[in-house]
Amino acid sequence: MSSLPLVFDAPRRAAPPRHLADVDPADRPAVAMELGVPKFRLDQLARHYFGRLTADVDAMTDVPASARPALAGLLPDLVTPVTERSCDGGATRKTLWRGHDGTLAESVLMRYPDRATVCISSQAGCGMACPFCATGQGGLQRNLSTAEIVDQVRQAAAAARDGVLDEPARLSNVVFMGMGEPLANYKRVLAAVRRITEPSPSGLGISARGVTVSTVGLVPAIEKLTREGLPVTLAVSLHTPDDELRDTLVPVNNRWKVAEVLDAARRYATTTGRRVSIEYALIRDVNDQPWRADLLGKLLRQRIGTSRVHVNLIPLNPTPGSEWDASPKPVEEEFVRRVRAAGVACTVRDTRGQEIDAACGQLAASQRA
Question: Which annotated residues bind [4Fe-4S] cluster (predicted)?
């Protein structure tokens, strides 16, 4: 096997301070005892944080002033907005977050006619080294904590409710497609998914069917997620159906080949009953050839089944100075036609935010520069 520039274990850094979202509801009594407050005070705190989307203890008028200092210690500022940019008439808003140690992560909040979606980060940077991705070019700084992940969602939900997207909206969808490889931060991402989907006061109460977890194809982690039995959508960042090119575009393919990844995706779809999404960034003269569209449709039909898979074609959002560019519209349309001809559903993702560096990792890279 060739030597790979992949990082599965994040560099060791000082852990973020403990946060309410890091605490399993079953552990709240012990934490309350440690803080010297009654257990129901933590339940009050959770109702405000998860249910009312506030982290300001002083605004919690049902909590006595004497208990607020202890409880405030469970709501430290973990992710603080550094830069916020809007476009698409206010319907898209990207936020660059700074962690307690100065690391940077990103999220994008988007309003559509029928939903509001936030795309969140699970790591600061990424160790998967995909050459066309701005995050992959920057490398991995560290894993985000459960609370750092959850608080991106909590703040997005509050912002959407308060009309930051030009009109009030209810956050209904969460996609783990920001910075990082979610399944390389498995334990914290899984805990975050539970906090996001459990009803208040245990969590934010967003339907699990509105949550999508992406991966470049870490097969053992996909198998593990399959056994969890959570009805979240699995999105596989495939980007090409042939191993020869994928070894370069998605270096993890040197460990787990296309067939292995698709077989794991089939088992996930079969076990959970959820249709798998295949993410495919269409790159001019690299992976957009008609024969690759034909091969993609054939492999998905044979290895997953047409009723269990959907191709999400992504027009590449090129990064400054990159050799990679989006495919011309006629090429994109022909690619879609050929995948559909194999009986596989295929749609083109609505492009958002090119003028605000909305591609994953771009805003963080510009800040570091």
Answer: 126, 130, 133
Active-site residue list? 106, 360
DSSP 310-339: EEEEEE--PPTT-S--BPPHHHHHHHHHHH
The span from the CA of 246 to the CA of 298, in Å, is 17
| Whether the Cβ atoms of residue 313 and residue 277 lie closer than 8 Å to each other | no
Does 218 count as an annotated binding residue? Answer: no
Asked if residue 180 belongs to a known ligand binding site, the reply is yes
Cβ(149)–Cβ(109) under 8 Å? Answer: no
Domain with CATH 3.20.20.70 in the chain: 80-368
User: Is 173 annotated as belonging to a binding site?
Assistant: no
301-306 — which CB contacts under 8 Å span 24+ positions? 301/342, 301/343, 301/344, 303/259, 303/262, 303/263, 303/265, 303/266, 304/262, 304/265, 304/266, 304/269, 304/276, 305/266, 305/269, 306/342, 306/343, 306/344, 306/345
pLDDT at 6: 63
Q: pLDDT at position 321, please? A: 72
The region that residue 160 occupies, defined by phi over 0 for left and psi between -120 and 50 for alpha, beta otherwise, is: alpha
Q: Is 87 annotated as a binding residue?
A: no
pLDDT band at 10 (very low <50, low <70, confident <90, very high): low
Q: In this predicted model, what pLDDT tens digit does every residue of 288-345 receive, in sequence order? A: 999 999 999 999 999 999 999 999 999 998 777 778 999 999 999 999 999 999 999 9
The superfamily (CATH) of domain 80-368 is Aldolase class I (3.20.20.70)
Pick the more confident residue, 136 or 262.
262
